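Need residues for this backbone.
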């Protein structure tokens, strides 16, 4: 929190976060704090307790997910989607409204977006698309 306070004191008023693997959980936890982030992207997150870690999210979120992920398994993904879809379905005027997107990349496993095999054309393309989707989401919520 001190880091965010220092940024704001220096005039930075729009911050987004990407968290890969275990960093995805910490991005999610920061997304529950008012005034911290404009957008968040948990990418194949780990150690997430759904729904407990998901319900407090108040920040627009884009989830980048592997098709096969034993660390963030399908049951956790479903609970996360259900919680976030409920928030997204609320009227934009409702303070509990939180926009979200979910992108699952076929033929990928946990870690593809950060340590995937760049020599594998399919994985390299999935990684590039994940970056594009994250950048587009951030542009929308950072206003850039």
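Answer:
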């Amino acid at each position: 929190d001190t880091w965010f306070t220092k940024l704001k004191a220096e005039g930075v008023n729009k911050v987004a976060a990407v968290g890969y693997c275990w960093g995805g959980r910490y991005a999610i936890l920061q997304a529950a704090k008012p005034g911290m982030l404009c957008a968040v992207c948990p990418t194949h997150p780990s150690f997430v307790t759904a729904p407990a870690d998901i319900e407090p999210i108040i920040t627009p979120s884009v989830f980048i997910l592997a098709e096969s992920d034993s660390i963030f398994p399908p049951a956790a993904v479903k609970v996360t989607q259900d919680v976030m879809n409920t928030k997204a379905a609320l009227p934009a005027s409702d303070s509990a409204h939180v926009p979200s997107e979910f992108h699952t990349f076929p033929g990928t496993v946990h870690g593809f977006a950060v340590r995937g095999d760049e020599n594998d054309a399919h994985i390299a393309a999935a990684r590039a698309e994940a970056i594009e989707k994250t950048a587009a989401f951030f542009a929308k919520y950072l206003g850039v």
